[in-house]
Amino acid sequence: MTEEMVGIGVNLYREYENKHSGSEYLKNAGLPDIHKFVMGMSYEQFKYRNPEWIYQNFNRNYHILIGSSNINRNKLVDANMITKELFELTVEETLAVEWTVLWLCYNCPAPLSLSEKKYRKKDERILTKNNIERIIDYYSVTYEQVRKSPLGKQIFYSKPFVITQKKREKLAVSIYLVQNTTRGQTPMLAI
C-alpha cells in the first residue's frame, strides 16, 4: 500500500464520518455541548483501556453469575446450558477459552494465525484451535454486517473481530474491544 492510497482511505473515512455522524448537531452546538459530546464518546471507551477495571468487572460478573454459592440462581437462566448450546463447552471452559483469545490478541491481531504451540503447553482438550475458532466466530462480524447494522461501528463492542473479505481472516479490531468482550460478558450476559 502506498502513502497515497493510505491518504485516500483516510479522506474517504473522514468524508463518511462527516456525512453519517452527529456533525449536524456539532455545527450548531456551543462549547459546553461539544464538551459533553466529546466526553460522552471518550468515557465510553476510557474504562475499557484500564486492565484493572476489566478484571474487577469480570470478577464481579463471575461472582454474581457463577461463582458465589450464596446467590439463588433458580430463577436465572442456566449459563452452562447456554454455553453448551453455543460452544459445546461449560461456562468455566468458555471463560478459559475467552481469556486465551484475549491473551492471543495481545500477541497478534489475527489470533487464529498463531500456532497451537503458543497456547497449548500440555495435552489440553479445552484450549484447542477448534474451540478458539468457535469463540472468535461467535464474536466476529463481516464488513457487510457492520454496514447494515443499525449500530454501525458500535457493533464492535459486542463483536470485536472483523472477517476480512479476501482471505476471510478474523482480525481483532482493537485489543480494548476484545478486553471489553472478555470482561465476563460471556454469551449468558447477552441473553
Question: Would you mind describing this structure in some detail?
Answer:
The protein is mostly helical and 191 residues long. It has 10 helices and 3 strands; from the N terminus they run αααααααβαββαα. The protein has a 3-stranded mixed beta sheet. Helix 8 (143-148) links the parallel strand 1 (140-142) and strand 2. Helix 6 crosses helix 7 (129-138).
Which series of helices and strands comes N to C?
Answer: HHHHHHHEHEEHH
Computed Rg = 19 Å
Largest sheet: 3 strands, mixed
Count of individual helical segments? 10
- β-strand amount: under 5%
Total number of beta strands = 3
Described by the principal axes of the CA atoms, the overall outline is globular
Q: Which residue ranges are poorly predicted, with pLDDT under 50 across at least 5 consecutive positions?
A: 186-191
Strand order, sheet with most strands: 1-2-3
N/C terminus separation = 42 Å
Oligomerization category of the chains in this entry? single chain
Main structural class: mainly alpha
Mean pLDDT: 76
Which bin fits the share of residues in helices? Answer: 55-70%
Task: Note the main attributes of this structure.
single chain; 3-stranded mixed β-sheet; 3 strands; 5% strand; mainly alpha
Write the layout of secondary structure elements.
Elements: H1 3-20, H2 23-27, H3 31-46, H4 51-67, H5 79-87, H6 91-107, H7 129-138, E1 140-142, H8 143-148, E2 161-163, E3 170-172, H9 175-181, H10 187-190
Parallel strand pairs: 1-2
Antiparallel strand pairs: 2-3
